[in-house]
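Repro:
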Amino acid sequence: MLARILAMIRKEFIQMRRDRGTVVIALMIPIIQLTLFGYAINTDIKHVPIAILDYSQSPESRELIQAFTQTQYFTLKAYASSPEEMTELIDGGKVRVGLVVDVDYAKDLHRNRPARLQVLVDASDPQVAASTLANANGIAQTRSLTILSEKVRSVGTPVDVQIRAWYNPDLVTAYHVVPGLIGVILTMTMTNITAMAIVKEREMGTMEQLTTTPLRAIEIVVGKIVPYILVGYAQVTVALLLGVLLFRVPIRGSLPLLYGLCSLHILSYLSVGLLISTVARSQQQASQMGFLIFLPNMLLAGFMFPREGMPPWAQTIGQFLPLTYFLQIVRGIIMKGLGIQHLWQYVLPMLAIMVVVIVLAVRRLQKSSLS
């Protein structure tokens, strides 16, 4: 049995050598995606254009405006002279935020009354609006604390709040995105590359030749999977190297543990690709089915959106996706330095899903023309 499997593996490597374009594309995917996501995707919205309508025209209001415009979050684009001009600036897309300072802003501060200001936000993009509102509120609260501290300096601050952000204190988006991309890249490429390779053999007529050999379905499965496992590990290595070199992502956990648990994810989606290949009748159909598999993984596994904010039915679907658990594993090892004792809650369900998918793929192959 081992000799037959080794012969099948050797055949796959020969076929991969002849089709170098597929392997090159597989290795280029992590480079392209990491570069795009790492540099372009950033949930911390900065340099939002802002317009100012200052009714107070006082030193206090100018200090407030300075607090907004001297940060990286807002860039001053215009001063409005009336509410109509402010509306026109926002409607025309010239600014995304309008800051309106009340005429009695300075007087209210000196009288120990709440000083009023209004923040107008173009919420046509909810993500930008949410980030902008949070930043504006934070700046306003910081300014309030500064004013209060000046008034109670002789008495002392009644409450000393110390905030500590663990694992990613600078809130660098790349630290969150890069580990997640490892799982996303493997999901996409392992599924498609396996399904396309087998369907391509069927279209070329070489698959029928395998049915005349002594190879059994399980041996064909193992022979097909092993070479692409190595491709998957090559992708993981490229992604980790780029993450460290380009984005300075710290790897706090065990690399051998990470590589070992990557095998569960790689095998799961290679088996999904094999399952697709037994159903698809053309490379185009296999590609479309691979995309249908990839789409819920991308949206519901927790890579793009937090699963805690999803409705219950979406969270339930996500529990049947290996990527959901792998994202927790890879981020736990890379960002938190967790060991296997903390990862069993993710490893066990992922292992169960992998076994089920492999069994389904083998049975489907046995019932297909391969048996």
